Amino acid sequence: MKQETLSVAAVAFILALLVTIQLRVVNQPPAEIMPATRAHELTVELQRLEEAAASLRQEAKDLQQKLLTATQGYAQAEAALKTEIEKNKIQAGLVPMEGPGVEVIVSDKPAEGPPEMKRYLFTVRDEDILRIVNELWGAGAEAIAINGQRLVSMSEIRVAGTFINVNLNRITPPYVITAIGDPDVLQGTLEMEGGVAETLRKWGINFVVEKKERVEVPAYEGPMAFRYAKPIKEGAEE
C-alpha cells in the first residue's frame, strides 16, 4: 500500500512538473517570431515610404514642367502682345516709316495779272492738296506726310486764312508730299492723262513728282483722344 502511494505521488509530481514546464513554455515570448514580424513590418513601411518618395519626385517633376511651360507660354504671350501693339501703332501712324515711294512738290507759280486772278487761279488750295492725297491713297500709298505732318484717320487738311493747316499745324509752300508705296503706280496715277498733275499744271501751279528708292515718313504726333466714341462691348444690350 505504501509502495502504491509513493507511485501515485511520483506520478503526480511528474505530471505537475510537466504542467509547470508547459506553462512556462507557453508564457515565454517567442524570441524568434517577434523579430521576424517586426522586420516584415519595417520592410512594408520602407516600401511605402519609397513609393511615397517616388510619387513626390514625379509630382515635383510634373510641377517643374508645368512651371517651365507656363513661363514659356508667358514669354510667348508677352512677345505676341508686343507684336500686336507694335502692329497697331504702325497702323495708327504712330511709328516713323521708310520705304520706296514718291515725293511730290507743289507750289504756287508766279503769274502776271491782277492779284485776284493770281490768288484764285494760281494758288495751291487745300482741296488741291486733298485731291493729291486721295489719289495717292487710292494708288495704294501706305503712309503719307505733308511738310513733315503725318496723315492719319484724324488728320485734317483745310484752309485757314491764307494758309493751309494740317494736323492743326500751319504749312506753307512749297508743299512737299511724301508717300510710301509702289513708285511706278503712285507716279503713274498722278501723271495719268486728265489726272491731278495735268489739271494743276493747266491752272499754272508747279507740280513735280519724283520716284524715290527710299523716302521717310515721320510718326503722327497730334492728339488722338476720343471724347464721344466708345468701343462696343460684345454681348452688351443696346
Care to describe what's here?
This protein is α+β, with helices and mostly antiparallel strands. It has a domain at 98-217: Alpha-Beta Plaits, CATH 3.30.70. The protein has 6 helices and 8 strands; from the N terminus they run ααβααββββββααβ. The strands form 2 sheets. It has a 5-stranded antiparallel sheet. Strand 2 (143-146) and strand 3 (149-150) form a beta hairpin. It is rod-shaped.
Ranges where pLDDT stays below 50 over 5 or more residues in a row are: 1-8
| CATH class division of the domain at 98-217 | Alpha Beta
Helix content: 40-55%
The span between the termini is 128 Å
Spatial ordering of strands, largest sheet: 3-2-7-1-8
Count of helix runs:
6
CATH architecture of the domain at 98-217, please? 2-Layer Sandwich
The profile of the biggest β sheet is: 5 strands, antiparallel
Radius of gyration (Å):
50 Å
- CATH topology name of the domain at 98-217, in short, is Alpha-Beta Plaits
Short structural summary:
With 238 residues, this protein is an alpha+beta fold. The chain contains six helices and eight strands; from the N terminus they run ααβααββββββααβ.
